[in-house]
Specification:
The complex is a heterodimer. By secondary structure, chain A is α+β, with helices and mostly antiparallel strands. Chain A folds into two domains: 134 residues, Periplasmic binding protein-like II (D-Maltodextrin-Binding Protein, domain 2, 3-Layer(aba) Sandwich); 157 residues, Periplasmic binding protein-like II (D-Maltodextrin-Binding Protein, domain 2, 3-Layer(aba) Sandwich), CATH 3.40.190. Chain A contains 13 helices and nine strands. In chain A, strands 1, 2, 3, 4, 5, 6, 7, 8 and 9 form a nine-stranded mixed beta sheet that branches. Chain B is an all-alpha fold. Chain B has one domain: MetI-like fold, CATH 1.10.3720.10. Chain B starts with a helix and ends in a 24-residue tail after the last helix. Classes of the chains: A alpha+beta, B mainly alpha. At the A-B interface, helix 2, strand 5, helix 9, helix 10 and helix 13 of A face helix 6, helix 12, helix 19 and helix 24 of B.
Amino acid sequence: MAHASFSLPKPLLAKFESDAGVKLSIIKGGDAGEMLNKLILTRAQPIADVVFGIDNALVVKAQAADVLEAYNGPAGQRPAVVPLAAGVVAVDYGFVTINYDRAWFAKSGLALPRSLDDLAQPAYRNLLAVMHPATSSPGYAFMLSTIAGLGEEAAFTWWGRMRANGVKVTKGWSEAYYTEFTRNGGTRPLVVSYASSPAAEVFYSKEKLTEPPTGSLNLKGAVFRQVEGVALVRGGQQREAARRFIEFLRSAPVQEALQTTMWMYAAEPGTARPEVLRHAAEPTAFDNPPVEAIAARGADWVSRWTGVVLK
Amino acid sequence: MNATGASRWPTLGLAALPLGFLALVVVAPLVRLSTVALADVDGAILAALVRDDYLRWRLAWTVLQALLTCLLALLIGLPVAWVLARRSFPGRALVLRLLMLPFVVPTLVAALGVLAVWGPRGVFASWTGIQWQDTPWLLLYGNLFFNLCLVVRAAVEALERVSAARVAAARTLGATPWRAFWRVEWPAILPWLASALCLVFLYTFSGFGLALVLGGQRFATIEVEIYTLVAHELKLAPAGLLALAMLLLTGLVALLYAWVERRLGAPARADHIARTRPSGLWQWCAVWLALLALLLLCAAPILAIALQVLLAGAGAWSVLWEPETLQALWNTVRFTCAALVLATLLGVTHALAARRSTWLRAAAFLPFVVSPVTVAFGLLLLYPAWSASLPLLIGAYALLAYPFVANALGAALDSLPPSLAQVARTLGASPLRVFWRVTLPLVQPALRRGMAFAAATALGEFAVTLFLSRPEWATLTTLIYERLGRPGASNRAQALVLAAELMLLALLVFVLIDRPVRDRDGRRPLPPYRAAGLPHA
């Protein structure tokens, strides 16, 4: 079972099947949060043996619901570039952050915002598009970073000011990026996305760009580090195959490939970084709330956010 | 009506198939989910829901925008349909098929098209300086873009079945064309319109797609609320209560419609008004106005996409030959065919069984009135072993597609002249033979229309997003969303190229299913009396 963004080269998956002598059936369960809820709902009769895409915002909820089983094989013993949680093997990580449209800022002459506070100023009115934290995992991550960076009360005050300053809320990342972002014909030159997006823009450009058309604004309180992992599903049938799959996800070929198929950074130390990712420098700082706080307060924060920004 | 024929139909036997299907795929999952959900319902949750101003506002807005859409669709769709039904001009048949394309365009692609024309940086804004984004107007536009075809297609078909003799009689007795329309044509087409508007209402009421992208989160409907509660927060109790409230409200609409249709449905006479070529300035103006309305409301966004596809360049076009795309194309075709066969079977049996039962008629709307996300989660809970299986996926497609067949056929069966079937029975034909040789040929246009919409449903994204899927089952729509899930100009271009491929495929399917019924075919067992505008004696 994987979230909707799971993507690895077909030959790699085929090689795994022939090496392990198993038939891999991948089930996509929507975005990460939706996928986890489907696992929780079917825990009496699990529909999968192994799950990929449990991230640091969800891992405590998953463990509390008792749908995972700890894995302590070689991949679980080896250190990862970034930690996740005991029993869940980190596979990749990335940063949710604000992207900006270079051409738009060059043309308008407006200085790039230097803090979240700047964004709430009249000069930056109607410039930012974010995603609803209840329907989008980057949207949720971005909200969490504001809470960790500013403190809960100040964060919601900021969101209230952003509402007055015309922040646009969309359902998911695709809507924000492809209908709101100025780079794609919208009206918002600032959009919540990933630190790797500028590199993907170069990789998927039509006229083979050498410089990314977008950049990341790594503002204080507006960067969330997301760590995705793989885990055994409690009650799964194919224990041995599931273990092999976990090892496979941490193997060198997969770790190298996922960087340009899922646009995340590799969790295995020493993995070569593709050339194009030089356009995606890792932010030096990030603001994540403690995972326990996310598990305990996450749902409340989302409803408070909805109240402040939409109602 | 149809007394002699219908009474012998083994109605119950017929109803068993669709009702059994509904029970398995809709009712049982909902009951199963409710048993989980309602276990933790308490007074506090109920009270909180009732007192929540935001939810009340949402509900009011949800109803209001659905009603407004129905009203606009009627005001615009009926005149357009009248022109399409009464005037013959080159390309008329093509227009009727093109009209259904909005139905298959993936939401996000449609949004890209709509914004390219009406958005803040679109053609309209650059000409007039007026920008519509974040206003309810753009949302209503999205609703119309998507739903107008339902009203126009149903009304065209209804108008084509209006008795020429009755209109001619009214005109001979001195009625103005306007009065003849109100007193003769309007009552005859009302059941058909009611059926189409009911679908429009239910679609926009549960509105989950285009309108939401265009209108922004502030205009989200109740179904979005339920989706959030179930899929992301797993708060089944409040979601279940909301879904139940929606079910009651939409169920009332469906019942009301079924009652109206059964009351108003009257057998028509089999003499049809022939289309005439427009003559004179006014008639040509009417034709051009109708086409202009369709161009602005339905075609402009699609043309904007087509233009971008043409400009996308060979690099983006190469996506069409990738093995992944060919696989997706094959999946799209085979899923659509399988779903269409099942949907037709269910739709025909349901329509035949529901001829004399208001409840059964309303039940045909069940797939539209239940909250899709609750069904999806209910299915998962009830049949975990089947959760990612092909039969369940095809079942889900057919579930969302078959009401179109049932509804289109239902209205057609009502307006069937009973005498023809009676004559055939008198002459010794068995009920099955009567159905095959008499009823079926006469309701064929309606059946084709229903099947075309059913195919459009299967081709489009309706079923794909909520249910579990496997990468090897990717359809064209899935690929489009995958492309739009990653940044980069070539991803966007490829998504649009794939959307164009999907639309061409859909058009091909519509042409195959929905062939024009020829006026002079001696091959058909019982040709409708087409008397070139003259009342049939």
